Amino acid sequence: MVISSMRIGLGQINTTIGDMAGNVRKMIDAAGAAAGRGAEIVVFPELAIPGYPPRDLMEKPSFVDHAEQELARLAAATAGLPITIIAGSIGHSAADSGKRAINFAAVLKGGREIFRQVKMLLPTYDVFDEGRYFLPAEHQRPLELNGRTLGVIVCEDAWNDKQYWERPLYLRDPVQELVAAGGQALISINASPYHMGKRAQRREIFQVTARRYGIPVIYVNQVGGNDQLVFDGSSFAIDPGGNVIAAAPSFAEDLVIVDLDTGAGDQNTSFDDECEAAYEALVMGTRDYLAKCGFRRVLIGLSGGIDSSLTAAVAVDAVGKENVTGVAMPGPFSSDHSMTDAREMAERLGIRFEIAPIGAMYDEFLTVLDPIFGSSKRDVTEENLQARLRGVTLMALSNKWNALVLTTGNKSELAVGYCTLYGDMCGGLAVISDVPKTLVYQLSRVANRRHNDAIPENVFVKPPSAELRPDQKDTDSLPPYEILDAILKAYVEEYEAPASIAARLNLPLELVRDIARKVDRNEYKRQQAAPGLKVTTKAFGIGRRFPIAQRFEE
Fold first, then answer.
1. Confidence grade of residue 3 (pLDDT, cut at 50, 70, 90)
2. Which CATH number fits domain 277-478: 3.40.50.2020, 3.30.365.10, 3.30.465.10, 3.40.50.620?
3. I need a labelling partner for 475 at 20 to 30 A (CA). Which of 47, 199, 414, 552 fits?
């Protein structure tokens, strides 16, 4: 069905949770720009006014009050524009029972709110917890606008197509209901977080919807980092045949205009390679975490290894080389190449490089502790002591320089507890904590393409080592990372049982069980870790809620 003369602006904006005045300013500016380009409608993401996800800020009645006031301000400020605005916000529920708030899409025209579509399907899986805060809509209805019938929908409400999912999560399909009620085009506002592969999945879902009902689809997603979640944007418009006729880039704000009559629209796609996209997600997540928390500078412990090298490259792209300091902290078992590689990379990246040896501190601690240790042999205690001295050093510099420490541990290490509490886990943001070790190497190649091979080749080829005892290698305690990461993906991300993993990967069952036990027993460490940036389907921290004190074992 052809909708004549409909030009729509896709307002892909980066919102800050709680900065409602700032979020509204962005929408006012974008609405003016869209009107200037001849758009009849401009669409903004889910919860664009309060920011997403607000989490327990929703429990504050004043937070909801403020959102309602800012929605009225947005309507008044755009009253003189020849354009209709669709934007996500929150409001108080009028129901006598149930949750006190609603999540909705507001339609503003001529200075007032002319329509409101409340979200019906409230996700409570993975990183989502909307059932905790919102009252769902009981029904939905299409919007009559300028002689056209539109289906306006909020995020999850468009993700329950029974022809796409083998097992839909909900009994109702709001899209089906809106089309049955006469909807001639679908406008979906979203706050859909990124993980690798998610961008292609989204397009496929909405292409199925467009072809199934023979209607055009507008999908607008927010962009930016909010705590552990990174939103890629990647907004698009699809014609009734399932063709993408307009697209916004990933990981950048944009205003895209599409004409549903002619099928002409801006095409601003980016990052076709998924490793490039994941790298950019880390950059955006780091940049926004720092900016939205009020930090400008960062500190990184540089070991000359691949993890700290990748973290440093991401930091340079996030905040600029002038705001990054790398600190080498050689200890009694540090190799010469660790210092050489760390220094060389710092010079190539152009970051400040400092050396703070921990050897004297380590000896002094042993002088105090050895009489108490008595005849006990050297073991992991002394290894962890070195890591903790490095943590103390970085946190002291953090206090002195008002710079945030970025931890450098990867997902593989965090999974099995190959990390030290109050040592290498010290810091304010765990940049690569959702990046498996094998992916660390791939993303480091991306970093080298961007930074003129700043990471020395020796860092890629030398065996990984914590260098906390003579000739130590990671494989002394762990299987090769190619094997470990395959086990972890199955056990952590897909919840596959050890026996099934062992059979499918042709691995010894006891090896898989040992890794699974390590994952389960180190939950106490992970719940004390710095927040990390989610780039896989299942990250530690947000979206993975396991008890610490438990004895279930598969």
1. very low
2. 3.40.50.620
3. 552
